[in-house]
Amino acid sequence: MKIACSTFMAPGNTIREKLANLERLGYEGVEVRLLLQEATPEVVAEYEEALAASSLGIGAVIAPGPAYALSFDSEESKEIKLEGAKRALEIGAQLGAASFITPEYSPQSPLPLWYPAKRLSPREEELFYSFMAEVAEHAEKLATTALLEPINRYETHFYYSIADVMAVCDRVGSPRIRMVIDFFHMNIEEADIPRSIESAAGYVQHVQLGDNNRELPGKGQTDFRAGFAALRKIGYDGYMALECRLPADPEQELAACARYLRRCLEESLAL
């Protein structure tokens, strides 16, 4: 497994500076975060050139866009979301990485505090699986992979748990649809993080790291050693990228976090 960091957390004014700084601070890879509305062909080409000149590998691409917050309640909204998803896949294919596909990312109202988390209506489910069929077709055409992330119930109502996303992958039935798991979201939704990870062998293609309080790993209570041991058990050997709050002093804090994660990886061997 290789330690990576999101570009939005990396110090530097240009993508080349960010990559150079991450390498110097002890990272082996990067997760590219690029706002969809800013991802012009020229900007994507700049990222492509910078990655080619760097020793860092790329774990995944996340290209958030305004459609994330759009209600998934009509053919029109589905087509808007699909346009963004296809563009994200194209960026990932150009940069040589899988791309996040997020049908909804928006604060939930009312908050699901005491009652069971909201689930898709029949109409939403119909539109969602129609959307996913076209996402899979586009990913297959580009020979890339679409990543679905279980997101906690306060930030989406589409799917929350590892089991939820496994069910989506199975129903879509395409090898080009896989999963990214995030320790922050797992801390909320999974009763037993290592056991849930072990259940997802063959589905997990990318990992995001954030502590239970969405701070850097080591700043909260998450047992990363046990999680890393579970990832080893399922044969995961890809990138694990920081995707959490940006520290006040990124130079110092990111270097310390890389050292902490390496200790966790070493200690996970004994579990």
Structural account:
- The chain is of the alpha/beta class and 271 residues long.
- The protein has a single domain, classed as TIM Barrel.
- It contains nine helices and eight strands.
- The protein has an eight-stranded parallel β-barrel, surrounded by six helices.
- Strand 7 (204-209), helix 8 (224-233) and strand 8 (239-242) form a beta-alpha-beta unit.
- The chain starts with a strand and ends with a helix.
Key traits:
271 residues; alpha/beta; TIM Barrel; 8-stranded parallel β-barrel; 9 helices; 8 strands
What is the third-level CATH name, the topology?
TIM Barrel
List the helices and strands in order.
Answer: EHEHEHEHEHEHHEHEH
- Low-pLDDT regions: none
Q: State the strand order across the main sheet.
A: 1-2-3-4-5-6-7-8
The rounded distance between the terminal residues' Cα atoms is 16 Å
What's the number of helices? 9
| Second-tier CATH architecture | Alpha-Beta Barrel
Helix fraction by DSSP (H/I, runs of at least 4): 40-55%
